[in-house]
């Protein structure tokens, strides 16, 4: 079992930045692909970013490309999401997830473990 705990969410003005962290416990995440998803009120959970087990490959949703950066530190068993140039439409609960697909995945159904999420609110 892998337990994931997100942190770093909060209220920020449009144009600002936040850095989310996802701390894992129970098992090392070095053999897992990792991903971030988000869910806005009344909407389905959507893919944000994913990273391969070694951090050598990343992929982003079109809506965040150029603004968000996913990274990982396997020694710290932690994954990060740096979010810059935030927009009101980025407001959502952000979830960290782990998948046995070591290359990472964009598919909600491919995730094996989920955190409980952290709320990001971007004011205009």
Mean pLDDT: 97
Number of helices: 0
Helical fraction: under 10%
Largest sheet: 7 strands, mixed
How much is the radius of gyration in Å?
A: 13 Å
Gross morphology: globular
Structural class: mainly beta
Q: How many runs of DSSP E, i.e. beta strands?
A: 11
Task: State the distance separating the first and last CA atoms.
Answer: 40 Å
Strand content: over 45%
Order of helices and strands: EEEEEEEEEEE
Low-confidence segments, given as residue ranges, are: none
Q: What oligomeric state is this?
A: single chain
Description of the molecule:
The structure is a single chain. The chain is mainly β and 124 residues long. The protein is built from no helices and eleven strands. It has strands at 3-7, 10-13, 18-25, 33-39, 46-51, 58-60, 68-73, 78-83, 92-99, 113-114, 118-123. The strands form two sheets. Strands 2, 4, 5, 6, 9, 10 and 11 form a seven-stranded mixed β-sheet that branches. It is globular, with a radius of gyration of 13 Å.
Search tags:
mainly beta; 49% strand; seven-stranded mixed beta sheet; four-stranded antiparallel beta sheet; 0% helix; 124 residues; globular
Please specify the SSE layout and strand pairing.
Blueprint lengths: L2 E5 L2 E4 L4 E8 L7 E7 L6 E6 L6 E3 L7 E6 L4 E6 L8 E8 L13 E2 L3 E6 L1
Parallel strand pairs: 2-11
Antiparallel strand pairs: 1-3, 3-8, 4-5, 4-9, 5-6, 7-8, 9-10, 9-11
